Amino acid sequence: MLQQFGSGIWVHDGGSVTGAMGFHYPTRMAIVRLADGGMLVWSPTALSDALRAAVEALGPVQIIVAPNTLHHTFLGQWQAAFPRALIFGLPALQATRPDLRFDAELGAVPHQDWAVDLDQVLLPATSVMTELVFFHRPSGTVLFTDLLQNLPRDWYSGWRNVIARLDLMTEPEPAVPRKFRMAFGGKPGMRASIEQIIAWPAERVLMAHGTPVTADAPAFLQRAFAWLR
Fold this sequence. Notes:
The structure is a single chain. This protein has a single domain, classed as Ribonuclease Z/Hydroxyacylglutathione hydrolase-like (Metallo-beta-lactamase, Chain A, 4-Layer Sandwich). The protein contains 7 helices and 11 strands. By secondary structure, it is an alpha/beta fold. Helices cover about 25% and strands about 25% of the residues. This is DUF4336 domain-containing protein.
């Protein structure tokens, strides 16, 4: 149910979700143990009784984070299950989900509740999405939500397979899809944001949609963002 990904961090691979034009995506969430023993849930997937029990066995859920403006489908389930947990989301997401109770906004500066354990970089806002990239210090893990993707070559069929290949969603290693390169590439501050991410002492790279990188993470990050230079 939960797999330990490194010191103080666990992952869970959930089911698929369907997005625009019928494209379906695998889902993945991460759970981080904070310095005070509480748990931070990153990009929550669909909640089942078994998953809830596994998470509660690690420690009390204190914080639930929606790290970009696209990953919010299951926030309501988690909020109902853990009403005392603080819910964090980007301002643009909060504006589109008035049905949810958000306790605080995500921004460029790490919140005091996780600043000891996590660093973060806020990417420039675009009309496609806004994303906050995290770095978990104890495990050396960089956490991307949608900016990096890596699906199997046969994940889609028919015309969706063609589009996914053209969009670089099914490359041999995780890559930034072309649609996001177009959205983010010309944004002021994007290159500086990526330079901050590359400067982290990364040992692993985790993403919501794709195979994690567990070796030579710094070299991988250089390759993944070479298109920006």
